[in-house]
Every structure is written in C-alpha cells, then in structure tokens.
Amino acid sequence: MSKEIKEVKINKYKGSLILKIALICFAIYLIFMLVVQRSEIGKKEAEKLMLQNDILQQEQVNHEIEYSIEKNALGVDEYAEEYARSELDYVKQGEKVFVDIGGN
Question: Is the pTM of this model over 0.90?
Fold first, then answer.
C-alpha cells in the first residue's frame, strides 16, 4: 500500500471585492466632505469679518447720533449755530475767517 500524500491548499480569506469598493468609496466621500466643510468655514469666516466691519461702522454712526442728540440738548439755537458753522461753513456777521491756502 502506498501512501499518497495529498497537498491540501488552504484558501485564505482575502475579503470581499464589494467590501473593498465600499471602503474606498467611503474614504473618497470623507475626503470630499472635509474639503467642502473647509470651503464653508472659509466663506463663513469672510462673512464674519464683513459683519464685524458693518458693526464697527454702525457703532460710529451711533456715536455720531448720540453726539448730535447731546448737542441738541444744549438747545435748538446753539445746535443750529454749531451745525451751520461746521457743516455749511457759515460765519457770524463781522467775524473774520482765515483760510489756509497752503499745501498741507
């Protein structure tokens, strides 16, 4: 009796092709989402800066309004005179005005 030695091949489990494709697709999806989210963050930061600038401008306007209200509290005549002098370049009768014609 001869003993025959049979070679036994053990098939190693290499994983499913569908599983590999699903993992690759998931990795691509994650990378894509990271890029999109970074883009959105950049846009929101730019919008935030614009809104901060708008807030600063509005605060300046508010201070100017508060100043004009305080001036108005002095009295209508004083306020009107101050406004006419500063904004409209009016002068009182007999008052001398000096204009600087120099470069600076």
Answer: no
Whether the CB-CB separation of 85 and 91 falls below 8 Å is answered with: yes
Rounded Cα–Cα distance for residues 84 and 13 (Å) = 92
Cα(28)–Cα(74) distance, integer angstroms: 70
For residues 36 and 20, give the distance between their C-alpha atoms in angstroms, rounded to a whole number: 24
Q: At 83, list the tokens.
A: 């406004």
CA angle 51, 53, 58 (to 5 degrees): 95
The pLDDT of residue 12:
65
Give the model confidence (pLDDT) of 45-80 as tens digits.
999 999 999 999 999 999 988 887 777 666 677 777
Number of residues written out for the chain: 104
Residue 99: what pLDDT? 79
**Crossing angle of the two packed helices 76-86 and 17-74, in degrees rounded to 10:** 110
Looking at residue 7, the DSSP 8-state letter turns out to be P
In terms of Cβ atoms closer than 10 Å to its own Cβ (0-12, 13-18, 19+), residue 79 is: middle
